[in-house]
Design brief:
mainly alpha; 273 residues
Length: 273
């Protein structure tokens, strides 16, 4: 009984090359048959044959916030389009034609479906490249990469990296109803941390000025002005309340307002102590 002869490296290489050639011939024969008859069965066979390629490209663009199944479905859609559009007359391998088609479909998905805020297309694509570079560098360096390292990896200026990182914040919006995540303040949301405009502060100086000016008129005049402008009573109603005629009420309002204006003008011109 003779011993089995070991297979050399050259022989293994030759066998691998032969299998690839056979696979390529099978692919071309299957494509020729599908393109000739457009049989759905042949199309399904081609899809099954190149599914690993679609899965590989989908994993290349996988992100923590984006389900892989969604990306894989998009990649499969690109694969089907590539199969339907492939032309054997081009004398190129199908994979060489399919890869740009599938990647284009994935990038279009990220551009049109996943961004909460619209940003320029070139900036979206740069943000995706920077995101992949950050993931790769983090694995290689076992730490977060610097902006300089990211710029070198992507091949762009540091300012462009910073712009892309800022644009990534527009990828997915966070609800104001989301919890803050602080155990000491359970129940609080991000919306609770937002400041609101306090209009009272802008009126504080006006209130102080009016309070000072009101000292220049009599208590009776102050009461008439309060009834007219705060309580919104008519001059006739005010006259009934204080026991004077409507004409007298009108005169009181006119004189007191004129005195306030004159006092305010003098006070404005007088430098503070």
């Amino acid at each position: 009984m003779s011993a089995t002869q070991p297979v050399t490296v050259d022989e293994r290489s030759e066998q691998g090359s032969e299998r690839l050639d056979n696979r390529a011939e099978e692919d071309r024969a299957l494509f020729a048959r599908y393109l000739d008859k457009r049989d759905p069965v042949d199309r399904e066979m081609l899809v099954e044959r190149f599914l690993p390629l679609a899965r590989q490209l989908a994993r290349r663009y996988q992100r923590p916030e984006e389900p892989f199944d969604d990306l894989f479905q998009v990649a499969c859609l690109g694969l089907v389009k590539a199969i339907d559009r492939f032309d054997l007359a081009r004398e190129v391998a199908f994979s060489s034609y399919a890869v740009p088609t599938i990647l284009g479909e994935i990038k279009r998905y990220f551009r049109d479906r996943t961004w909460s805020v619209r940003v320029p297309r070139d900036l979206q694509e740069l943000a995706l490249r920077v995101d992949r570079a950050v993931s790769d560098l983090s694995l290689d360096l076992h730490r977060q990469p610097t902006v300089e390292e990211i710029a070198t990896k992507v091949g762009v200026e540091e300012e462009e990296v910073l712009e892309a990182l800022e644009a990534s914040g527009a990828y997915k919006a966070t609800s104001l109803e989301a919890p803050r995540g602080n155990e000491d303040e359970a129940g609080d949301t991000l919306g609770d941390t937002l400041g609101t405009e306090e209009r009272g502060f802008s009126l504080a100086e006006d209130r102080a000025t009016i309070e000072h000016l009101m000292r220049s008129i009599t208590p009776r005049e102050r009461e008439v002005l309060r009834l007219r402008f705060e309580e919104d009573l008519t001059q006739a109603e005010i006259g009934e309340l204080i026991g004077v005629s409507q004409m007298q009420v009108s005169r009181i309002i006119r004189q007191s307002v004129a005195r306030l204006r004159a006092y305010a003008a003098v006070r404005h011109k007088t430098p503070p102590d």
